[in-house]
Specification:
binds zinc ion; 2 domains; alpha+beta; Zincin-like; 180 residues; three-stranded mixed beta sheet
């Protein structure tokens, strides 16, 4: 048991940037996963799992591959990491670790009640399809053109000083609140 159970594992300590190579990215992901497993007392053997990057996956941020209910591989989506950054990827790693834990403990690969409980404890999302959810929407007040933004940028910081590329109308920024 941790002496400070409320405290979360500091993701910034493990941060990797988009210039990281795949082996570097996977090494950091495993280090971080080990720390999460230890911190929350999960039944997960990080070294016993295969860790891979998927460069083909588009819609999901990560996945656990299992055979007959035994988790074998944690697959992390490269494009998600590139678009959404380390913090979002760390959240995905926590999500996948909850899956591995529940598969090992209860043979449960669902997003059921136990998953929801643990997801709340580990501060991660319940829904796998997070990839499609941008952090912000920038919309044109005139023509309704909408741009999805995943990372902070000049356009996000300073939306009013830009104009719509289609019609020249004024742009509005809104934070995207994905439904739970
Ligand atoms: Zn899931
Ligand atoms: Zn417009």
């Amino acid at each position: 048991m941790s002496s400070e159970p409320e405290e979360e594992v500091d993701t910034t300590y493990y941060a990797v940037g988009p210039e990281a190579t795949v082996p570097e990215f996977l090494a950091v992901s495993k280090l971080y996963a080990r720390e999460v497993v230890r911190h929350y007392g999960l039944t997960v053997d990080v070294s016993g799992l295969d860790w891979e990057v998927s460069k083909r996956a588009k819609r999901r941020a990560g996945a656990v591959k299992h055979r007959d209910g035994t988790p074998e591989t944690v697959s992390l989506t490269w494009e998600f990491f590139q678009n959404c950054g380390w913090e979002a990827t760390a959240e995905t790693i926590r999500h996948e670790l909850v899956h591995v834990h529940l598969l090992n403990e209860e043979g449960d690969g669902s997003h059921g009640a136990r998953f929801e409980e643990l997801a709340a404890e580990l501060d991660t999302h319940v829904n796998c399809e997070r990839f499609a959810e941008p952090k912000w929407w920038i919309r044109c007040a005139s023509c309704g053109t909408a741009l999805a933004r995943y990372r902070r940028s000049k356009l996000v910081e300073n939306t009013e000083s830009y104009r719509c590329g289609s019609c020249g109308g004024s742009l509005r920024l809104s934070e995207n609140r994905p439904r739970e």
